[in-house]
């Protein structure tokens, strides 16, 4: 049985076994119909022209793990930003791990989607926000149909969340092949500020396919900083769908660090609904072997006096493939928009490939918009200069590549994440850079 047919046939059994009152029952049913109609995306679709899912859809995935694998803190500590105090929402094979997590309802809600769907006190937020940003494309619809677990974060107005929130999904290899569909809902009310770190990590070499959806709502003057660390095993694939709706004077930044995994597709969509909004999208990709990373971004400027900043850096070795498809849409009413988009790439192998397509669609006349794309190799004159100063070739190449990506790190607001990413970059480049930020 093909995976699509298996998913559709499993949906009704899934709905029947849910324990919540299903405030999203109708939404789920509409979503599975959408997925059944559209199926998995193929390269015939323009947005998926350079990314094929065939290699990751061939496995016989388990959709609902029946047994739990016991995990201790020492097993997951290397994958956490453990040198900071933080709230933690930890999932093991798609199921919440209470003994590894630290949640709260003390003035803010940092808890589970299953709790939000089951308890009446969360009903108003669910009705107002759930599935209000996600598109009706096939993969977000598939996730919506099977939505039952993930992170639920609600920050009421005038709250500064004093410590970051980590959302981490682990797969243990308990199943020969596993498909996960986590759903996160994050609502940041007026004048509030939150920092969130997300990671998906496989602990074995068994195939894992994660189809994740995150909806983020930043209300008036809210600030949200979101960090995605993607450094998974070679048999793990991630399709990450993130949808962000912003209101007046809000600031949202998303930093995506893609260093590992078989296939990674990041669909990142910003919708600006108000004036004086700032949206930041930045990323670093360093991959090799036959890895594939695809960044597909959209910033939709709807009202005037707003800004957006996109800056993606890529370093590709061996037979790796990178894709960047960045779209900026400026509506007629969005006068005095300032939109910046940049995608710069280095190919360190003759077999590596990058497909870059920056796009601007501007319907307003009083705007400042720019986009650019570069694809090249390391600067030989800079290499010669460093070699002439006694720096070995391997270290010189690593320092140049680190400097190439460093401006993305400059906007990271959590020092411990800067340090972690610096070490990951050094490891990916195969050198000891010899300094921390």
TrEMBL record:
<protein>
    <submittedName>
        <fullName>Fe-S cluster assembly protein SufD</fullName>
    </submittedName>
</protein>
<dbReference type="InterPro" id="IPR045595">
    <property type="entry name" value="SufBD_N"/>
</dbReference>
<dbReference type="Pfam" id="PF19295">
    <property type="entry name" value="SufBD_N"/>
</dbReference>
<dbReference type="InterPro" id="IPR037284">
    <property type="entry name" value="SUF_FeS_clus_asmbl_SufBD_sf"/>
</dbReference>
<feature type="domain" description="SUF system FeS cluster assembly SufBD core">
    <location>
        <begin position="174"/>
        <end position="404"/>
    </location>
</feature>
<dbReference type="Pfam" id="PF01458">
    <property type="entry name" value="SUFBD_core"/>
</dbReference>
<comment type="similarity">
    <text>Belongs to the iron-sulfur cluster assembly SufBD family.</text>
</comment>
<dbReference type="InterPro" id="IPR000825">
    <property type="entry name" value="SUF_FeS_clus_asmbl_SufBD_core"/>
</dbReference>
<dbReference type="InterPro" id="IPR011542">
    <property type="entry name" value="SUF_FeS_clus_asmbl_SufD"/>
</dbReference>
<feature type="domain" description="SUF system FeS cluster assembly SufBD N-terminal">
    <location>
        <begin position="15"/>
        <end position="167"/>
    </location>
</feature>
<dbReference type="InterPro" id="IPR055346">
    <property type="entry name" value="Fe-S_cluster_assembly_SufBD"/>
</dbReference>
């Amino acid at each position: 049985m093909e995976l699509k047919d298996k998913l559709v046939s499993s949906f009704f059994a899934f709905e029947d076994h849910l324990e919540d009152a299903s405030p999203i029952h109708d939404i789920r049913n509409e979503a599975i119909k959408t997925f059944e109609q559209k199926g998995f995306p193929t390269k015939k679709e323009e947005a998926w022209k350079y990314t094929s899912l065939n290699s990751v859809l061939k496995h016989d995935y388990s959709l609902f793990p029946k047994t739990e694998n016991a995990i201790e803190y020492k097993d997951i500590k290397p994958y956490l930003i453990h040198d900071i105090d933080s709230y933690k929402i930890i999932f093991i094979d798609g199921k919440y791990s209470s003994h590894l997590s630290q949640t709260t309802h003390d003035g803010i809600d940092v808890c589970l989607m299953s709790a939000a769907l089951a308890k009446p006190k969360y009903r108003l937020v669910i009705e107002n926000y759930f599935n209000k940003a996600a598109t009706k494309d096939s993969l977000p619809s598939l996730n919506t149909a099977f939505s039952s677990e993930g992170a639920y974060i609600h920050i009421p107005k005038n709250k500064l969340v004093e410590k970051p929130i980590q959302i981490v999904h682990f797969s243990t290899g308990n199943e020969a092949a596993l498909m996960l569909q986590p759903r996160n809902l994050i609502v940041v009310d007026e004048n509030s500020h939150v920092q969130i770190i997300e990671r998906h990590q496989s602990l074995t070499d068994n195939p894992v396919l994660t189809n994740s959806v995150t909806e983020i709502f930043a209300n008036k003057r809210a600030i949200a900083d979101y960090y995605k660390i993607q450094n998974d095993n070679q048999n793990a694939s991630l399709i990450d769908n993130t949808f962000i709706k912003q209101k007046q004077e809000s600031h949202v930044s998303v930093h995506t660090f893609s260093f590992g995994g078989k296939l990674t597709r990041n669909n990142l969509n910003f919708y600006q609904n108000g004036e004086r909004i700032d949206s930041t999208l930045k990323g670093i990709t360093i991959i090799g072997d036959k890895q594939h990373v695809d960044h597909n971004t959209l910033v939709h400027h709807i009202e005037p006096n707003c800004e957006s900043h996109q800056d993606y850096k890529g370093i590709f070795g061996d037979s790796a493939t990178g894709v960047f498809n960045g779209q900026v849409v400026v509506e007629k009413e969005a006068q005095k928009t300032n939109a910046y988009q940049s995608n710069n790439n280095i190919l360190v192998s003759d077999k590596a490939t990058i497909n870059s397509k920056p796009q601007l669609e501007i319907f307003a006349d009083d705007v400042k918009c720019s986009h650019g794309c570069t694809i090249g190799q390391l600067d030989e004159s800079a290499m010669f200069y460093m070699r002439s100063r006694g720096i070995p070739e391997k270290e010189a190449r690593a320092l140049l590549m680190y400097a190439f990506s460093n401006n993305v790190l400059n906007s990271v607001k959590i020092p411990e994440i800067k340090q972690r990413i610096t070490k990951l970059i050094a490891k990916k480049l195969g050198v000891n850079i010899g300094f921390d930020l």
